[in-house]
Amino acid sequence: MWKPGEVIINRRVAEDPVARRIRSLCDGVPIRYVDDSKPGTVAGASEILADAGTLLEKVLAGKQILHLAPAAAGVVDTFAMPDDRIMCPSFERLKLASNGCFYRCDWCYLKLTYRAAFPFITVRAEYAKIQDRIRRRLRESDERVIFNSGELADSLAMEHLTAAGRAFIPWFGRTDNGYLFMLTKSDCVDALLDLRHNGHTVVAWSMNSEAVSRRFEIGAPPLPRRVRAARKVQEAGYPVRVRIDPIVPVPGWKEAYAETVERVLEEISPERVTLGTLRFEEGFYRMRNALFTTGRELRDMVEGMEPMFPPERIPHRKRPAGGKYSFPAAQRVEIFRHVIREIRKRSDCTIALCKEDPAVWEAAGLNPSRCSCVCQLA
């Protein structure tokens, strides 16, 4: 079980049950207190960050720091993709944890998107206040609403410290139209198995080739442990889904991902599978050599990536944007077609692509008229 190298607690929640739990489980870990949760305040209180110089050093140092913050106004919000050329509908976010996790996946977009400014892991206390905000959102809708807790951090990686799942899963199970979406690489699921979820919590696993995971998803549980965890959760009656993302075209990738699909689908029956391949925001891609830690293999593999679209003026962007940097469309289509064929040998589950061009959906044999990603309820 992971323990942080340092815990920094906002004094407003120093006696919250989550703070008491974290202190009891982090015996011997330095505990520091701050008056607010502004990035500069938290970072300034950290002795670990004081020794970090480069951006990458700060990113890696920040993975040792756990900050407990109050339930800020934005803990529940709506995410909308600013570029409508990419298939990705809006969805509700539930930020029980944010700024990433302690895994060191080399392509994680949060390295730059948040960690440059927020070089620490944040978890939220004041669960009752958060539930009040969710309740208000649910009253606004006559439809079912699913809240994504895995957009800004792994949904279960810190469950042993926060017990957030144990607090929120039964709570969602008692609502009429509220659903919780959890996305994880973790295998720490035993605490969830006896909860009364009533089918209102969907758990999705990010799976990858065992060789790819070992090389590039440093610190995350290997594929066999993730599959066993997913099987346990499915046997406990939860809806289970799978992301195979990013698919990384290492030498022998076709055989590697065929084996991955076979191992996953031998053990579990996911409702849905979402596929994606390597893609980067422009800023991350331009700074990749300062952010990758696993050597030349990944750097060489992504050399020559280009924007997915011709540059176009996007609202709220200072200059024309071409979308994420990725492999050429023809290469992405080849990757998706191969993995889809392997899935179809074993399952008729719904398949979707993550943040992709509708033309690529069509070329891969999928219907782009509506997104059916694992994070969507219907």
Briefly summarize what is shown.
This protein is of the alpha/beta class.
Categorize the overall geometry. Answer: globular
Q: Characterize the main sheet.
A: 8 strands, mixed
Order of the strands making up the biggest sheet: 4-5-9-10-11-13-14-18
Percent strand: 15-25%
User: Helicity level, as a percent range?
Assistant: 25-40%
Q: What integer value in Å does the Rg equal?
A: 20 Å
End-to-end CA span: 35 Å
Query: Structural class per helix/strand content?
Result: alpha/beta
Number of strands: 18
Determine the oligomeric state from the structure.
Answer: single chain
What would the average pLDDT be, to the nearest integer? 95
Number of discrete helical segments: 16
Uncertain spans, ≥5 residues at pLDDT below 50? Answer: none
Structural account:
This protein is α/β, with parallel strands linked by helices and 378 residues long. It is 35% helix and 20% strand. An eight-stranded mixed sheet has the order 4-5-9-10-11-13-14-18. Helix 11 (253-267) runs parallel beside helix 15 (329-344). The chain is globular and about 55 Å long. The two termini are 35 Å apart.
